[in-house]
Amino acid sequence: MDHVPPEIWEQIFTLACTDSGRTGVSLSLVSTYFHHISRLCQYQSVALTRSKHIPLFRHALSHAPVEARRIKYLYVCCPNVFLDLSDEEDDPDYVETPMDSLSRSGSHERMEVGSDSSDEEYEGSPTPEELQEALDESMALSEDRRSFQQEFHDNDPEMRIWDDFDEEIQAADVVILEAFRDILREAASSLLLLSVNWTSFRPLLLEELLPPLPNLVELHLCRAFTSQDEIDPETEDSAPTLFSRLRRLHIYGYLDQRPDSLGRSLGRIAPTLTHIRMPKHYIRSFPPQSARIPDTIQKVILEIFLGGELGGDTDDTLELLFGLGASDSHSKEIEFTTHSLRDDPKAWEDSWLERVMGLRGPW
Description:
The chain is of the alpha/beta class. The chain has helices at 6-16, 22-30, 32-37, 53-62, 98-104, 128-155, 157-187, 206-209, 262-269, 281-284, 314-322, 345-356, and strands at 45-48, 73-78, 193-200, 218-225, 248-253, 275-279, 299-303, 333-337.
């Protein structure tokens, strides 16, 4: 094997390293010679399926030779960082969190809040003076209630536990997110295909999750958040250009709320986009004019969920998305499908792997 020119081996390794990364790692362990000549392909295709893998891989990547940091195909799954255990790990391996402590804490005494308000009613219309007096009393009562709630909150261990738990989750999210963005920045010049299944505590704008990736050709993106107090991320800023060469986009989960229309945002984010796959309800949540998408897009796949709305008429959808009638639609394709990956990490990884191997994937 040592007599085969390295250029031929590099071609073989390039064709072989189209999986979740095991081939690249295995090649580096065959021999010193293979370790040396396969290093350009070692990280060609990588799948990170747990949140703790992200900072570990960032560390490994930062210590690899510069020429070996060429990632072409990357899949990243970041589930809830406090529930991220593999199937092989048993319950005793869970790290105790404030939530665990809370579930085992004893019963807490409840404070009963009384009210001194009377049932006395006014006869006739109140005078302006009486209205002002009632308003002043109401404001004073509201202030007293806020003060009491704050005092109760500050002195109740259970409330402090929940606050601490939220802070721990957000702190962990920041660490994982920054490691992820470091990986993407390192691979930005070589990355062609990226699939991300990301769950965070609070929702993230697209530019908060992903840095600019100028050579990315295909993106699969599924986003979710776990906080009950949050809503879809909102900003007054227009969408930035993140993917100047992107051709295919598969999105699922929440959407950024921006002043621009859906079509204008897509045109800014990925000005060369030709294929998009998304849930159908995305376009139904916008006014008709706002739902129109860039003319560069040639094919739209709309996911319809069982028990939800029907597929609808193709001509009507073409009119809604492109402003085109049936006679003008020869260059556009609309496809309705009941098959959705939803937020299943394994399904997203399998779809990504199909594309790495040159198969159809979600298209």
